[in-house]
């Protein structure tokens, strides 16, 4: 009995386990360990400093939650609720057990249903000796209660006439009660569990209830509704018995009640003694009467049980035979029917009075007496015979049946028992199956592809090719029968270079009973090469059998077009890279010519103006003013020449990409008045000239987009080198935009950045959302010899 109860208990617990959906399991796997934040408070959550392990009611509750979700927890402690709330706002905490739901906290947390209910008790001195109701207390009675607190607000709202004495803690409330400064104290039951264990408070007892209960819940962050739904599901799955055990183990205190007094126990003991004596007397009288009745009924019961068993067996046998779905006939040696059950009468369309007593040849005209006697002798010697025949119904129609004959000897008589089974539906299903197979063969033969079926009878067995359409002759030059005879089936058609990918996709589909998709080259019988696209849908049946129905399409024309298109795109990309390189070289040449040629001319012009000023300025005041004006124009022209040369090819690039990024950031700040924070490696970065120019142009385009569209307040630039990759991150706090890769965008700036990066194998990642700014991450692979220089 005990083992049965244990087994039942295990089955109930197993039935309450939480089953996670694939999306929920995937969310937990992506999230990793759940971060739990607690404020240490005995006995709900405490830390053993010696073993560095957490324990308490909230800790055990989170252990049950983690076990149901099959995940791990990381714990973080905080000095108070404000620090815990700040950590949750910063995204450092996922869960917070032991939280109390308030209107203010609902703006920051999602709360579960309560898992612990902690009432507040009214505590008094043992000598007071009465049970107390709050609404019946005299006005002069004083009650100590921790303030500010929720229970203090509760008492103020529901019992405004009570004289409340505010104290700093529950311990202080009990100490005030011991010092006779108050008449009663209101203490949380969880704290009472700890305080009543101390000898100082041994004389105190619980004298009443306050009516206030603190409901402990599990709080999750507002931006993680998936986790909140998982917590609610786990709490519903945890049996109430476990929650009661959690309450009794950590919260329910072992403290003396008012009923623990000596007088109470004496009266209770006397009452129990009287009840025990009365129960013993009643039991003795009951035993005597029951023994007397049992003796008189024993023989009658045994006789009735024997009769009922025999009658029940006879009724069950007759009922089973009469209502069997199989037709049953008893036929004696002269071929006359002696008994027919209801199924046989309904199957043959005869009433009982027209069939019983008739020759068997009435329903089977071909069974004459000679054949019947031969059949009688055969069944009598071999005990069983089966065959398929047709019976003539009472309405003249023929009924196909499966007949089984068995020999029976009952008392002094011998019979053949004929079992009839209607096979009309069986024959119709067989005919429908043949028609369906013929239809399938016709459809498969006209499909412009190779139709096949792969079957596996059990999970631990190999899959075999069960069907192949005749289109194989036109597709690969092999007849379907020859491919079915091959042990490897379709594998023999795969090009040797594509065989590993084919086998890998096949094994993946077979291992997980998943759909199968493969594209690759196949060889025809005459050695020709074609491209094939194989798609098969998996179906699993209840008997463990799995089949893959699929088609191998000829995609040679499409694949050749695709390859030519890819080659054309590669040529266009190479041409674009060449044109970009030529353009940058031309910009550099023009920048050098502008800087050198125009610079020399302007320098000479400035010297000539200065010589004229020294020679003739004092002779004519008007001439001095004109010469000064010419010097200013020459200085402006110098500035324009420098700006044009810098725009064509900034000389700062010769100092390294890090210096160029800092220089461009300062120019951006001066033009837009937007602060730009820059972080680059301390050591210079060695890059090829093409990559340095390309990366610098990407930065210029990105900052131009920020200036035109972002409406940002600050911009951050970060350049890092790791694992032979150079990464440039450009982040702004502007208005952002909706990143949707599936929708074509009209931002030619981003398109140009991607194309420029593709020239040297780089990539662009965009992270943005409306109202949350935008971050561009540019990643460029480094060749051998590139990277940070050593000092």
UniProtKB/TrEMBL annotation:
The answer to whether keyword rRNA-binding applies is: no
* Residue ranges annotated for the PAC domain, each copy included: 385-435
PROSITE patterns registered for this protein in UniProt: HIS_KIN, PAC, PAS
Q: What are the Histidine kinase domain coordinates in residue numbering?
A: 589-784
InterPro entries under this entry?
A: HATPase_C_sf, HATPase_dom, His_kinase_dom, PAC, PAS, PAS-assoc_C, PAS-like_dom_sf, PAS_4
**Keywords (A to Z) from UniProt:** Kinase, Signal, Transferase, Two-component regulatory system
State the superkingdom: Bacteria
Record-linked Pfam families? HATPase_c, HisKA_3, PAS_3, PAS_4, SBP_bac_3
- Signal peptide extent: 1-17
Q: Where is the PAS domain?
A: 321-366, 436-513
**The protein's name in its UniProt record:** Transporter substrate-binding domain-containing protein
């Amino acid at each position: 009995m005990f083992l049965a109860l244990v087994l039942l208990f295990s089955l109930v617990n197993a039935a309450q386990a939480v089953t996670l959906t694939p999306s929920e399991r995937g969310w937990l796997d992506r999230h990793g360990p759940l971060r739990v934040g607690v404020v240490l408070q005995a006995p709900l959550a405490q830390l053993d400093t010696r073993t560095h392990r957490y324990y308490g009611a909230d800790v055990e509750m989170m252990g049950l939650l983690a076990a149901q979700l099959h995940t791990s927890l990381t714990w973080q402690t905080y000095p108070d609720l404000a620090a815990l709330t700040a950590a949750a706002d910063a995204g450092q905490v996922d869960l917070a057990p032991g939280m109390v739901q308030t209107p203010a906290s609902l703006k920051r947390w999602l709360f579960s249903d309560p898992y612990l209910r902690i009432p507040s008790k009214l505590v008094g001195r043992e000598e007071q000796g009465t049970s107390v109701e709050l609404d019946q207390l005299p006005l002069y009675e004083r009650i100590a209660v921790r303030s500010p607190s929720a229970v203090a607000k509760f008492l103020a709202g529901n019992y405004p006439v009570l004289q409340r004495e505010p104290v700093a803690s529950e311990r202080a409330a009990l100490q005030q009660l011991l010092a006779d400064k108050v008449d009663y104290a209101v203490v949380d039951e969880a704290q009472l569990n700890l305080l009543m264990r101390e000898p100082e408070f041994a004389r105190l007892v619980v004298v009443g209830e306050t009516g206030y209960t603190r409901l402990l819940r599990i709080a999750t962050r507002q931006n993680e509704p998936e986790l909140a739904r998982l917590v609610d599901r786990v709490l519903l799955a945890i049996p109430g018995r476990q929650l009661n055990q959690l309450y009794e183990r950590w919260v329910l205190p072992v403290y003396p009640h008012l009923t623990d007094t000596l007088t109470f126990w004496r009266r209770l003991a006397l009452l129990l003694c009287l009840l025990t004596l009365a129960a013993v007397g009643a039991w003795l009288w009951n035993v005597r009467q029951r023994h007397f009745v049992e003796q008189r009924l024993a023989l009658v019961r045994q006789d009735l049980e024997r009769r009922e068993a025999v009658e029940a067996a006879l009724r069950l046998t007759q009922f089973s035979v009469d209502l069997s779905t199989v037709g049953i006939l008893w036929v004696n040696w002269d071929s006359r029917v002696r008994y027919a059950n209801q199924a046989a009468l309904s199957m043959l369309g005869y009433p009982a009075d027209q069939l019983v007593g008739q020759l068997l040849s009435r329903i089977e005209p071909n069974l004459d007496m000679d054949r019947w006697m031969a059949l009688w002798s055969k069944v009598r010697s071999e005990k069983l015979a089966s065959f398929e025949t047709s019976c003539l119904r009472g309405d003249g129609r023929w009924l196909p049946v499966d007949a089984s004959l068995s020999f029976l000897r009952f008392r002094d008589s011998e019979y053949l028992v004929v079992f009839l089974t209607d096979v009309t539906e069986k024959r119709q299903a067989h005919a429908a199956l043949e028609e369906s197979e013929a239809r399938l063969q016709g459809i498969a033969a006209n499909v412009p592809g190779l139709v096949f079926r792969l079957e596996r009878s059990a999970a631990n067995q190999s899959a075999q090719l069960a069907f192949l359409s005749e289109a194989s002759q036109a597709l690969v030059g092999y007849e379907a029968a020859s491919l079915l005879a091959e042990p490897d089936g379709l594998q023999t058609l795969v090009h040797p270079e594509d065989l590993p990918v084919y086998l890998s996709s096949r094994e993946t589909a077979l291992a997980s009973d998943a759909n199968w998709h493969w594209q690759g080259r196949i060889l025809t019988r005459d050695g020709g090469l074609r491209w094939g696209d194989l798609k098969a849908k998996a179906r699993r049946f209840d008997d463990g059998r799995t089949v893959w129905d699929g088609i191998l399409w000829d995609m040679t024309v499409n694949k050749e077009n695709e390859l030519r298109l890819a080659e054309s795109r590669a040529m266009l990309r190479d041409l674009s890279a060449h044109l970009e390189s030529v353009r940058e070289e031309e910009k550099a040449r023009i920048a050098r010519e502008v800087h050198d040629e125009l610079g020399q001319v302007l320098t000479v012009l400035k010297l000539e103006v200065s010589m004229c000023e020294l020679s003739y300025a004092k002779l004519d005041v008007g001439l001095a003013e004109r010469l000064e004006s010419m010097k200013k124009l020459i200085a402006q022209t110098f500035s324009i020449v420098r700006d044009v040369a810098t725009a064509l090819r900034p000389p700062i690039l010769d100092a390294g990409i890090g210096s160029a990024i800092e220089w461009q950031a300062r120019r951006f700040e001066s033009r837009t008045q937007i602060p730009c924070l820059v972080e680059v490696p301390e050591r210079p970065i060695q890059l090829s000239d093409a990559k340095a120019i390309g990366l610098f142009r990407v930065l210029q385009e990105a900052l131009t987009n920020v200036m035109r569209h972002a409406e940002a307040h600050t911009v951050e630039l970060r350049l890092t080198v790791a694992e032979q990759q150079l990464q440039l991150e450009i982040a702004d706090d502007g208005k952002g935009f909706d990143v949707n890769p599936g929708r074509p965008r009209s931002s030619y700036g981003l398109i140009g950045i991607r194309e420029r990066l593709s020239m040297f194998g780089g990539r662009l990642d965009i992270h943005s959302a409306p109202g949350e700014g935008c971050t561009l991450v540019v990643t460029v692979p480094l060749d051998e010899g590139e990277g940070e220089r050593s000092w």
